[in-house]
Amino acid sequence: EPEVTQTPSHQVTQMGQEVILRCVPISNHLYFYWYRQILGQKVEFLVSFYNNEISEKSEIFDDQFSVERPDGSNFTLKIRSTKLEDSAMYFCASDPNRGNEQFFGPGTRLTVL
Amino acid sequence: AQKITQTQPGMFVQEKEAVTLDCTYDTSDQSYGLFWYKQPSSGEMIFLIYQGSYDEQNATEGRYSLNFQKARKSANLVISASQLGDSAMYFCASPGGGNKLTFGTGTQLKVEL
Questions:
Q1: Which pairing describes strands B10-14 and B107-112: parallel, antiparallel, or unpaired?
Q2: DSSP per residue over A14-53, as a string?
Q3: Nearest chain B residue (CA) to A106
Q4: B71-86: pLDDT as tens digits
Q5: Which chain B residues have a beta carbon less than 8 Å from that of A48?
């Protein structure tokens, strides 16, 4: 069964460093998303991506964040200068645009020291 | 739906018993959907079940069913014949504009022998 994959599973970085989180969505899906979950809290929407551009972003998704789909399969989230409060689980999700299924990857746990 | 409320931070159930996890929503949309996801301690988000607002029948997937009461704006998850492996955090979620999901705060379910 096709699934969303994410790498790495864990990332530890120093404050101020850039990180790139990678996702491979399910191949025939059209909408892609990034969410984050700070430890012990609910899942929060960051950004959605469709037709090679951002379709919506939350107030969390400031200028430090960017997304790309560089090669038609990978979907990346870049954080330019990480802060302590960026420590969270980051989930990628994809959606075939039926609106009734959104599949999540296993997540990348980011720890900023 | 714009707001999702899960009022049970924690629930206990005996193995083989049924349990209901509550979810209420607030929306002005005419057409909307409700999702339930399971998050085990390993952190991944597992899609369980979906209910569309225009679906006449309550959704069912194996041991999971949705008790959807539109007039009360509730979409409670019923897990029948609980198993130890059902112990996890359960999130109710709904798409807003553009299919982004808004999540509730979750319910931690513990299945006991």
A1: parallel
A2: -TT--EEEEEE--TT--EEEEEEE-TTS--EEEEEEETTE
A3: B44
A4: 999 999 999 999 999 9
A5: 98-100
